[in-house]
Amino acid sequence: MAQGKDSLQQILDDVASAAFATPDRGRVADYIPELARVNPDQFAVAVARPGKKTMFAGDAHTPFSIQSVSKVFTLALALGKVGDRLWARVGREPSGQAFDSMILLEQEKGRPRNPFINAGAIVTTDTVLAGSSPRETLGSLLRFVRAAAGDDNIHINESVAQSEITTGHRNFALAHFLLSHGNLANAPDLVLGTYFHQCAIEMTCTQLANAGLFLVGDKAAPRLVSPDRIRRINALMMTCGHYDGSGDYAYRVGLPGKSGVGGGILTIVPGIASVAVWSPGLNNYGNSKLGTEAMQRFADMTGWSVFGSR
Ligand code: GLN
User: Fold this and answer.
1) Could you give the residue numbers annotated as active site?
2) pTM of whole model > 0.95?
3) What are the start-end ranges of the E strands in the chain?
């Protein structure tokens, strides 16, 4: 990256102006009624680096629904709880299918392809839930996320969770299918109640960038998981974090990332930074349209792709 005190800030300002000036903002997720109400004109980007002040541009202090970005935190907790035994219940391969797809789950007898598609995340939530109540589980998850972000002002939006409880029929179908194959230890309504609340965690872009610092793998970052786990979680984010758009994100950005239908994306620059972007409009894969475009611009300008700079 170009040297100079303000160069990173200049890049963030440039990325934000380009995003605000883009007329085609994608489509806000409307299958969760509460998310359909979010204003698509918003955009934010924030960069957290171990031991340095977090930088941002745009609406970086507006909370948004992190949705599937939460699957990264649940995966870290599930691996912490059962270690590699998790892989007996969920795979580590990209699915090439939409996040809520059922087709491979049927072909592969109830073992989801990876922990970031919905079926796989329902299994990791079930793993974290085993032996405790949904309230305790969500308490541990919030504690983890708050410790990661160094910020106690992170909460669950109950209306968003309720909105999904009443409309999330496909997730109920996935959970029941998992149960029919013996791959769910808890009752589907308990697992999904926990899963929908975990998805309804709200964070600002600044908080999310800070919360990703534990995956950067730097000594000055919060040490919440081992270096070995950091490497593995990043590998899964790179290969599976954007569903059937994971190859596209790797091609365009070249960094491990995890998206959510709230329009947030958490991207890790191993050894350097944790970057969060947010713009509510989605592309055809259900990933933030402007967020993806912004990260492509950001990776080009910083030269931070793990595959080399230009
Ligand atoms: N809560 C959402 C769902 O289960 C999460 C999906 C997503 O962010 N891709 O449908």
Assistant:
1) 68, 71, 195, 243, 261
2) yes
3) 27-28, 44-48, 55-58, 64-65, 155-156, 201-203, 257-259, 264-269, 273-278, 281-282
CA of 284 to the centre of ligand 1 (A): 14
In a domain? residue 115: yes
Alpha carbons 292 and 282: distance in angstroms, whole number: 9
Q: Which of 147, 174, 201 is the last residue of a domain?
A: 201
pLDDT in tens, 66-82: 999 999 999 999 999 99
* Number of domains forming the structure of the chain: 2
Give domain status of residue 309, yes or no.
Answer: no
pLDDT on residue 111:
98
Domain residue limits at 249: 7-67+203-302
Domain boundary among 178, 201, 224: 201
For a mutational test of ligand 1's pocket, the pick from 38, 70, 118, 289, i.e. the residue with the most ligand atoms closer than 8 A to its C-beta, is: 118
Q: Give yes or no: residues 208 and 60 share one domain.
A: yes
C-alpha pair distances (Å), 172 with each of 130, 201, 309: 18, 20, 44
Cβ of residue 100 lying under 6 Å from some atom of ligand 1? yes
Contact 161, 196 (CB under 8 A): yes
Beta bridge partners of 58: 44
